[in-house]
Amino acid sequence: MELRDDQPRKHEIGNRTYIVADVEPLDVDGVRTLEVGTALWFLGFVALLPFYGRLQDDGRSWWLWTCLAGFGLGLFGWEYCRRRRRARAELTAAR
User: Fold this and answer.
1) What are phi and psi of 88, to 5 degrees?
2) Strand intervals (E) in the chain
3) What's the number of domains the chain is made of?
4) Is 3 helix (H, G, I), strand (E, B) or coil?
5) Chain segment 15-58, per-residue pLDDT in tens
6) Is residue 52 domain-resident?
7) Are 20 and 8 in contact (CB under 8 A)?
8) Is residue 89 in some structural domain?
9) What backbone torsions phi and psi does residue 16 show, to the nearest 5 degrees?
10) Residue range(s) defining the domain that contains residue 52
11) CA–CA dist 11, 19 (Å, integer)
12) What pTM, to 2 d.p., does this model score?
């Protein structure tokens, strides 16, 4: 199973020709991106926690719960990406 699809190397738009560089993506599996994003959602939750009373008075307590939901969903996404990375590594090792 090939994980890359063939993409055009040149794009002609108007009078110009753009050549696409052969560069591998930095974060193929997304685990690091999920780790950072999940940590930022948790940091936002912790940063807003001392202001819960004021947020509730202003009708913005949903900010706190949005951060908590982002953290929870980030944990699910993190586990999904870790499993996907493991499966891709097993596929590569089997070849």
Assistant:
1) -65, -35
2) 10-13, 16-19
3) 1
4) coil
5) 888 887 777 777 678 899 999 999 999 999 999 999 999 999 99
6) yes
7) yes
8) yes
9) -105, 150
10) 27-94
11) 6
12) 0.70
